[in-house]
User: Which sequence fits this backbone?
């Protein structure tokens, strides 16, 4: 049982450290063979090597993710919320080349230094931490509401005063507002 667990642990470490994943390399200091005794220090050395490779990969992944989340600003054009996600995305890409509608997570982890067009408020995609049959909670803002009230029923409804979606203000406040009012879109790269 122990040898199967060790085999699985080292196989997982080898996959994590594979060149296809552009991960750091892993050199296992001790190789064990069936029927020979191992020492705690040899096992600990192997686990230390695996931990170091995993920690290095975590640092690489974190720096890559933070480098890719960049809030650009609010789109120059506006739209009601019920026009579809592609239309909202096109408002972003016409204002900021290569951008898309931000999620609340992207917005919260971005730099705001070079953001432009920040006035009023803008549509933003929620990052759900909970979605039930009728209720939802955005993980970043803490705003709670009915499931359809976060995205104008999937960015498809704008006529009814009851249809609402999540917005972010120019100072970073998150509020659920009616879909029928034209707004800018929060754009990220």
Assistant:
């Amino acid at each position: 049982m122990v040898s199967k667990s060790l085999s699985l642990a080292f196989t997982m470490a080898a996959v994590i450290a594979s060149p296809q994943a552009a991960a750091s390399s892993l050199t296992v200091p001790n190789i064990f063979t069936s029927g020979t005794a191992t020492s705690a220090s040899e096992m600990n050395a192997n686990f230390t090597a695996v931990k170091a490779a995993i920690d290095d990969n975590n640092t690489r992944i974190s720096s890559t993710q933070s480098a890719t989340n960049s809030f650009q600003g609010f789109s120059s054009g506006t739209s009601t919320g019920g026009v579809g996600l592609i239309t909202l995305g096109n408002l972003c890409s016409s204002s900021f080349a290569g951008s898309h509608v931000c999620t609340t997570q992207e917005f919260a982890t971005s730099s705001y230094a070079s953001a432009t067009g920040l006035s009023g408020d803008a549509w933003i995609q929620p990052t759900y931490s909970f979605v039930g049959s009728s209720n939802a909670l955005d993980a970043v803002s803490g705003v709670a509401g009915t499931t359809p009230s976060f995205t104008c029923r999937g960015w498809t409804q704008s006529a009814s005063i009851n249809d609402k979606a999540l917005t972010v203000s120019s100072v970073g406040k998150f509020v659920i507002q009616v879909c029928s009012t034209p707004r800018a879109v929060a754009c990220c790269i």
Summary: Residues 1-21 have pLDDT under 50 and may be disordered. The first helix runs from residue 2 to 16. The chain is about 35% helix and 20% strand.
